[in-house]
Predict the 3D structure of the following.
Amino acid sequence: MKRAIGRLLGGLALGLPMAWTSWCVAAPAANAATVHNVLVIYTDERLVPANVLADRAFHDAIVSPDERPLNLYSEFLDTTHFSGASYDATVAKYLRDKYALQYPAVIVAVGTDALPFLLRNRAMTFPDIPIVHVGMLRADLLDCVDHILRNIRKNRSPFGGLQILFIGDLLQLPPVVKEDEKRWLNRYYENAFFFQAKALQQSPPVRVELLKIYRQTDQDFIDLLNTYIFPFQYSPECVFPLGVSLLRRYYCKEYL
């Protein structure tokens, strides 16, 4: 099950806290019949196409074995239309009361606003529950997380003294920055990638690089991927012929 969720999350995940080897659900209970609850909180409304697909993928990917039953719940903040302190308090109370008897073992925050919402209202909602953030994490959002945790925990250390686990592929698409955000973002950051965050500059993370490819079996394709992932190890004379040969192999005139 952990592998299925890992494939689904992709991108960059931010786990809070790091003391978490089995981060999909809580630690195994003594009673095998204990039901574990996973609460997924989305930034936008339910009918946003990306949310529909993601929610369906979560349900399809999380298989609940008999020996470890698991419930999956979804909530949608719809921050495009609603925001402010009063709205925060209303939704936080709603979540606390609704899930009082189905207390989550882990919370998944999807999108830009879900994570700050959970951190701002952590004391009121689920103060002791690990959070996984799913999304394209920008530097400013990570610094926002750092600021909120320092204030909530009354601890001036980076991230309020918590250990943070980052999981993701840094060689994918850059974080989305709207045109009206670029001007002020460029004043503080070299670019929008999460590793430009001031908090990480104060406390550089320990890096663990995974090199073995499990999702591909075609060695020619793996070699081509590696030429782009590790370009300094390959000469242009090697990269170009390999790419051209693969394109010719899969080229189909009928598609033109």
Remarks:
- The chain has two domains: 2-210, 212-256.
- Residues 2-210 form one domain.
